[in-house]
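dumping this here so i dont lose it again. seq + smiles for pyridoxal-5'-phosphate
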Amino acid sequence: MVSPIVTDMKLQFALHPMDTAFEAFRQAYPAFDSTSKLDELRATEYARLDRQGHVYLDYTGGGLYAESQLRDHLALLSEGVFGNPHSKNLTSMAMTRLVEQTREYVLQYFNASPDEYMVIFTQNSTGALKLVGESYPFGPGDTYLLTFDNHNSVNGIREFARSKGAMVTYIPVLPPDLRVDTDQLAQALETARPGKNNLFAYPAQSNFTGVQHPLEWIAQAKSKGWDVLLDAASFAPSNRLDLSLWHPDFVDISFYKIFGYPTGTGCLLVRKTASQKLRRPWYAGGTITFSSVVANDHYLTPGPAGFEDGTVNYLSLPAVEIGLKFIESVGIDLIHTRVMCLTGWLIDRLLALYHSNGNPLIRLYGPPNTHLRGGTVQVNFFDPEGRLFDCNDVERLANEERISLRAGCHCNPGAREVALGFTKQDLEDCFRDKDRLTFEQFLEVIDGKTTGALRASIGLVTTFADVYKYAQFAETFIDRYVTG
Ligand SMILES: Cc1ncc(COP(=O)(O)O)c(C=O)c1O
């Protein structure tokens, strides 16, 4: 990065603009230096990124794996002989031991007492959420309370609630920061009906704005009679979730978001007392100890297996322990520190971009600083006349620079609708003829409004060079006009 210049036979060194920016960044964020271990890992375990010139800024979409995770998993599989678990033959018992060991390790990683919590393996966060949705004993007089800011897999639970006659209530988020109005939350939490089933769901970190909704709400809601579902899918990859401090009833996790490999594994961490409330709508192979066709009845397997339909993803599960151990060897607090330093710099840099006529280039959706937020930076780009660049076009142009961003609504319609200023009328029009509308017609109804925004998400091995390259890419839009 330092280029030699020869003047008057003297060798001097001129700093590259990125070096100058890096020095200023280090001074503004002195904690960053303590995370240099991650630069070393980037050069070793993640060398493929720089070898191929990738700027990966989609960690909320999916984490990246270290090469050693693959090697360790492959070595385990190459050396072992493993059969389908839950039988008493040697190879099956060997596998059962590893599956149960992984279960224990997940509890240990989240500092969850085995007396209080159990781990149910699922395919992903969505699988965990669906398990809660279909099994929670919603009925008339019950309530499902949730924040506008939620992933669709949490929103979707409302269909189970409604179909069983429960009431669904949303708590709005307020622009510009898109945090929940705490007065409205307090009022809503007062509405839990004694003796009824009251479920409150929210994300520990928004996958749209990066807002971190307070974990203190868990105890507050529980004290008012709510069961609490904490969606930790986008929080867990760069934040410590300590379940000895916080006691949500249900927590969903997608492991690939934390350490990249393997996909297809996730879990529901459930408090044992809350699990007793759940009523499975069916049973399957693996979930029952005894079933009779003649007597037309069954006994559910006690413990987590009663919730794991069919054969678990058994060969992949030991890779979850490998992945968690890798994260522990790095340190989740170190990852957090690094992510927040880089996020703070990127937000400042993007918000400082103006066209020559004084109009801002960027609109940020979410908090403009690092207070109570994570490493998700959601924006749209605007031209000097305030016209919006389609986020999909910007994503495509970023591809040309090998920068991986993500354009869209990110499965979080509530946050998007408030962020982009959609009215109830706008949206009701979209659903009026929904059975007959094609997606293209839907876009016409929505009348030129953007349906999304552009998300950069910072994670485990993001470097300063990555965020710098994104900021440089953004700068190329200065004084550029939307065409067409
Ligand atoms: C906050 C949040 N919740 C839930 C999910 C669903 O995760 P998955 O698609 O892995 O099931 C996501 C995925 O991006 C998410 O960001």
